[in-house]
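Quick one: structure for this chain?
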Amino acid sequence: MKVCEVEIFGDKYALRADMDDEKVLALARMVDTRMRDVAKASPTASSLQIAVLAALDLASEGGVAAQAEEKYQERLEGVTLEVKERAERMLGMLSGSLA
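Got it. Here's what it folds into:
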């Protein structure tokens, strides 16, 4: 497990991760940016409150993305089933016309 040094909201962290350093840095930048956005919107909030609000905001985005992916997969399965059924009907019609 590698150690990657990042800075989030003015604090430095040495993070251990099983992923590419660039990905860790990108995630840290995303968290830092979100915390700074929250801090601008809530100037009286403590660092802990800012961190919690940023975490909730990021988690909410992840939840929305997961729901969209789930709906996409359901739609894809439905379309795949419909195409399969139509193909089987067409093959049946062709088989009947060849006999």
